[in-house]
Amino acid sequence: MKLVFRDIDKHGVGHVVLVPEESEDMWHAYNLVAVGDTLKSTTIRKVNTESATGSTSSTKIRTQLTINVEAIDFDTQACMLRVRGRNIEENQYVKMGAYHTLDLELNRKFTLHKNEWDNLACDPTQHADLAAIIMQEGLANVCLITSSMTIVRAKIDTVIPRKRKGQCSQHDKALTRFYDQIIQAITRHVNFEVVKCVLLASPGFVKDQFFEYMMLQAIKNDNKSLIDNKGKFLLVHSSSGFKHSLKEVLQDPSIATRLQDTKASSEVKALEDFYNMMQLDPQRAFYGIKHVEEAFRQGAIETLLISDELFRAKDINTRHRYVKLVDGVRDGGGIVRIFSSLHVSGEQLSQLSGVAAILRFPMNDPDDDDDNYDGAGGDDNNA
């Protein structure tokens, strides 16, 4: 994301002009734009004109609109951001107060104004340095795992006829077509200049058979991209070819060393450490905003795990609550892991209210005597 201009006063009021330069920047923009903000961008508007003779014609005009944001929609597959709201500035093509949807586009600047900015902003320096192909016979998901999310770039779902005694041709032909589709998806979506490791996971020997076929085809077709990066492929076991199997793959100890430099690995490791702490020393593992805030007041937080979804709360006081917690933990020398709600590990953290902490020392339950408190795993993250 390119920052073109910034004008924010000491009270946090102001605007920035940004240019998204790559697809993932749309996700960063999604984390920045909130309901109640003001967004200015160019858009295409269909305009009907009537001539002196009474005939009408329709033309598409590119114009600039400023809307008060009321709804935000992020398409994870296409990495597109659509923002809907009412027009708040005079425009010759759009009436004041009329609803309009702005589609934010790559390499086209937009201006975002907030009545209050906080210091939790996007980090555009991160890239998708990990890819994964989760597969089984007839099903494969080609994923890119970025600092923010797991993106399914291609899903191949095809019928593979059963292998029958003496009649293998249909089965083998279908399997070859299936493998070829996966190779095409890898070639199209995996940037080996950025990707450090490609996980190839499946039940049984599907991954081994595919990898052998892929390398034979790469040699046959002189596909230097695959040949030169053969060493980046890591074959591991998964229970299925569905996306949810990615969790167990990322937790496999045999691949931890290869993934230690990636954001995805650190998130999964932090969550795994939290679960282990819950089992071994539950007084050092808190979750739920009330429990975590009390641990913070006692200076007990060693590692804070928090979902980025909490920073998109509509209520500004709620957002302040989580921003203050994050800033405080960092200032106190603690580690903060911000999980994406679109990442596998982020989905798991959301089931624990979206906020959890590993403590430096054991603490008793701060609300044991509070009959009105429904437990650390309740819905207090929305408080």
Automatic annotation (TrEMBL):
Subcellular compartments: Cytoplasm
Domain eRF1/Pelota-like N-terminal: residue ranges: 1-130
UniProt-listed Pfam families: eRF1_2, eRF1_3, Pelota_N
Alphabetized GO MF terms: metal ion binding
PANTHER family registered for this protein in UniProt: PELOTA, PROTEIN PELOTA HOMOLOG
Family recorded in the similarity comment: Belongs to the eukaryotic release factor 1 family. Pelota subfamily.
Role: Component of the Pelota-HBS1L complex, a complex that recognizes stalled ribosomes and triggers the No-Go Decay (NGD) pathway. In the Pelota-HBS1L complex, pelo recognizes ribosomes stalled at the 3' end of an mRNA and engages stalled ribosomes by destabilizing mRNA in the mRNA channel.
NCBIfam families: pelota
Protein name: Protein pelota homolog
Organism: Helobdella robusta
Taxonomic path: Eukaryota, Metazoa, Spiralia, Lophotrochozoa, Annelida
